[in-house]
Amino acid sequence: MTVLLPRRQLLGAASGAALMLNAPVAQAAAPRFAIGETDFLLDGQPLQIRCGEMHFARVPREYWRHRLQAIKAMGMNAVCAYLFWNYHEWREGQYQWSGQRDAVEFCKLAQAEGLWVILRPGPYACAEWEMGGLPWWLLKHPGDAFLRSRDDAFVQPARRWLKEVGRVLGGQQISHGGPILMVQVENEYGFLSDDKDYLRVMRQAVLDGGFDVPLFQCNPTNAVGRTHIPELFTVANFGSDPATGFKALDALQKGPKMCGEYYSGWFDTWGAPHRRGDNTRAIQDIDAMLNAGGSFSLYMAHGGTTFGLWGGCDRPFRPDTTSYDYDAPIGEAGWVGEKFRTYRECLAKHLKPGEVLPEPPARLPVMTIPSFALTETAPVLANLPAAAIQAESPKNIEQYDISRGLVAYRVTLPAGPAGRLEAANARDLAWVFVGGRLAGTMDTRHRRFAVDIPARKADTVVEILLYTIARVNFGMEVHDRKGLQGPVMFKTKAGARELKGWEIRAVDFGADGELPPLRWQAKRPSGAAAPAFWRGSFDAATAADTFLDMSTWGQGIVWINGRCLGRYWSIGPTQTMYLPGPWIKAGRNEVVVLDLTGPRANRIEGKSLPVLDQLQPDRDLARPPSTARPRLAGLTPVFTGQFAAGPATQDVRFDAPAHGRQLCIEVLDTFDGQPHAAIAELALLGADGKPLNQTAWTIAYASSEEARKEDGSALNAINGQATDYWHTAYSGNARPVGTPRLIVDLGASADIAGIRYTPRQGPDSVTGRIRRYRVFVGDKLVDQD
Ligand code: GLA
């Protein structure tokens, strides 16, 4: 039976809360889906949303139905889908919606499988996706704060995008017979800013796109209040403590309680330990949310794989792995096991009368591929396009209309003594060759932009090969311009001069990792470490899923039959690449590998199991071990204080702004009395009370970091994610070494008026929440040998 509710109780998109009260009584039938005062309402009946997140761009189209069936069988009644703007508009004005990008087909499949759809079209998404889903060409416009702001340079293209989304997907709304129940505006905007008018502009853009279902916004529990506006329903994102999350929502608005992202696990970044979710806690939390009458979306129900070159990057610069398994209940290859079973059991208790759980779909076949060699090579530097850009001093690649890829920079250095070549910036990694020999590398992760150059008897060509990995997907740092950026200086004892007159050649991999024309040769390039493409093949009688073992290679990209599979990096923790069966042909299959550092063995085999948790730090680019020691003796702290108990984010203003390049937080004691410290996030506030941009930040010193039992890396304190944290070492024989201290280097001196501290999240029993502390600021707070 359909119960019609008074309009007053309904929150539809076109009517803000205030407007609703004035809505005429005599109107057309109530919308099929609405947000009531205590519940979501479907045809007038309360609906608890049990949603699972899956990104269709991260799952081979041939498997969409299989994964949707698994999500349904887990006990979900909805699927949450981001649209990544840059995936559909890599070149300005050229929209792509077919094949793997066919969002309409995805919605139709979801509907056919009995799942509602929650659409999250951005314009910003985050999601460990290149630039958080924003298109790179926006960066042709100057400025470091215009993205996700009311600046026209952002608003106009974003409006066009949302209009296009409406054109394509408007017909998929429940109001038009489709499965889309609700549409999200922006993503966790309160994490970035408090500009409510920006959200109003984006909301209007979604309405102008023709959406007429309810619109909502999401924010982490900590930030739900910052950007709440009555016109948008608010949901809270968290990975623990649903009671606090729901309470925060209650304080803001009338309406059902919903967790917009409950984390089943977490994503991995290259070089850091594999993450796992706490399954027992997740089940308890979900059970509690449903018992409280709430709704939730599981991020991720099925993570899948960030195929191609779409991986994002955490702040300050920690690129995400290609596997987006996420430790989700439906694994990267669509497998379900014990974890899935526990979710299914929990959700089965919360079905509506008459609802039946289907059986999960059968596991797809897996095969192994015997080891095969890649014996043809094409050295990168010998395969660059002939056409070159001439530049006095290199600018970011977006200025040259290069989107991403390999960029080679050539300049001539006259004869002379040894010296140091120093760029203003080099994103992301670069190999510097002098007279054809590798002199050193530049590495954004450590903000290492200088290389020692030997003495030269004659004019010598310096060639710098730069490789872009991913644009940061979080915070203001999404203004992540790539390339070698001048001025590039050459410094000797006698002085410094700028290197001018550059030739720039690029292999632009474009949207889908298009391979350039390559001249293959039958033998290995001289010097195993030369960056090169490699080619080989394997024969397949059948086509089934497999996991390519890349552990003996260095770092680069894999293509299968011309299709870009993704990036690999043998530092781990991911060592295998999921290769879906439908992308394999019966007969001969061609594999091309770009390897920048050179393989230990130029062979690949297909395994039947993934390897997601094996670090090989020895495979990383050479870097001298850190000898950093704090240098605080005799210094007066700029502030001494005491944090409030609990998980809430706290802003602290110093008595007077301090000036310096480095900031040390020294932990005097913690709430649980243990000698361990943890910090989820540490932001620094400028004179205007807003967080300083963290693009150039590094960790100058951490007294210790837990690296084995969990990822307690100090970088977690400055990556913008409240869910992970820096934790002092505790596993094995690690004993706390003296006072816990964390020293952040800002890259340049700045005025620091205060700090924004986010404690480790979770219940009050977690270790490491800081009570009393001191802060030091100075240009040099560490000594180094
Ligand atoms: C945030 C974002 C998501 C994703 C998760 C981490 O909550 O909203 O897009 O990036 O963090 O996986």
From TrEMBL:
Matches recorded under InterPro entries: BetaGal1-like_ABD1, BetaGal_gal-bd, FA58C, Galactose-bd-like_sf, GH, Gly_Hdrlase_35_cat, Glyco_hydro_35_CS, Glycoside_Hdrlase_35
Keyword check for Signal: yes
Record GO terms (molecular function): beta-galactosidase activity
Protein name in the entry: Beta-galactosidase
Species this chain originates from: Pelomonas candidula
Signal peptide: 1-28
EC numbers, comma separated: 3.2.1.23
Family statement: Belongs to the glycosyl hydrolase 35 family.
